[in-house]
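Page 37, continued from 36.
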């Protein structure tokens, strides 16, 4: 493909179909608009292409996480104690229809606003979904153990869904977190998160339990899965190197990989 070539919605649809995306599939998509190239219509064209290929009998899911709602000291900061207090007091709670995504990319940020898209209620790691199973996938996303079998990820696994890395890095594959909850080694540790939610009509800080989810080795896991199996389909969508992967096969492989390779 010549550098700078314009990419249309129809071109994206053809590329998705060549990759194996098909009508009726449940697909969780991780995406990079920049990687796809000069898309006519930008993120809107990419979203419509995905929905038209999957069809109303399928379901499209995207992560819509909101790291900006975490306690300001979680990732370290130069804030003074007074500034931390001001931020905690002034921080709004999560509003599924209003709160923007954080570090998710332009495509999920547009997707979450579309009519007919549902968004799960978790204040830190929500997911948005469109299509046949959208309401089911996003319903009842509990605070504790937010990426476990009871989460939207677990429901996609149950539905024999697919992972689509649409120009996204291989360490962005959030489905692999599912395997972390079943690890049998000492890597798995509990963690307590601070979160601000509505309690009895007031916005208050509280806590929830989870494990120390870690994606630092996800690229290595991807490389091993690609080498050891023939499940990964690789192709180009526009200019973006992309991958279509059956979630169940990869998550099941990931559990054994993590038990072997994580300390």
């Amino acid at each position: 493909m010549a550098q700078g070539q314009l990419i249309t919605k129809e071109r994206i649809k053809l590329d998705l179909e060549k990759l194996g995306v098909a009508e009726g599939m449940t697909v969780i998509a991780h995406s990079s608009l920049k990687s796809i190239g000069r898309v006519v219509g930008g993120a809107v064209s990419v979203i419509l292409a995905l929905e038209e290929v999957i069809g109303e009998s399928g379901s499209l899911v995207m992560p819509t996480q909101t790291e900006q709602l975490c306690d300001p000291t979680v990732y370290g900061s130069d804030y003074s104690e007074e500034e931390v207090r001001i931020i905690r007091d002034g921080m709004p709670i999560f509003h599924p229809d209003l709160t923007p995504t954080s570090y998710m990319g332009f495509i999920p940020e547009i997707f979450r606003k579309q009519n007919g898209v549902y968004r799960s209620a978790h204040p830190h790691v929500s997911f948005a979904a469109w299509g046949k199973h959208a309401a089911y996938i996003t319903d009842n996303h509990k605070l504790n153990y937010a990426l476990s079998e009871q989460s939207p990820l677990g429901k996609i696994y149950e539905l024999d869904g697919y992972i689509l890395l649409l120009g996204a890095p291989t360490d962005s594959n959030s489905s692999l977190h599912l395997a972390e909850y079943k690890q049998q080694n000492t890597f798995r540790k509990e963690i307590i998160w601070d979160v601000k939610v509505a309690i009895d009509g007031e916005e208050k800080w509280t806590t929830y339990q989870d494990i120390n989810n870690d994606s630092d080795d996800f690229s290595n896991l991807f490389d091993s899965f690609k080498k050891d199996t023939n499940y990964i389909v690789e192709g180009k969508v526009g200019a973006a190197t992309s991958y279509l992967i059956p979630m169940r096969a990869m998550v099941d492989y990931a559990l054994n990989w993590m038990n072997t390779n994580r300390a």
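The radius of gyration is 19 Å. Flag for discussion at group meeting. Residues 247-261 form the longest helix (15 residues).
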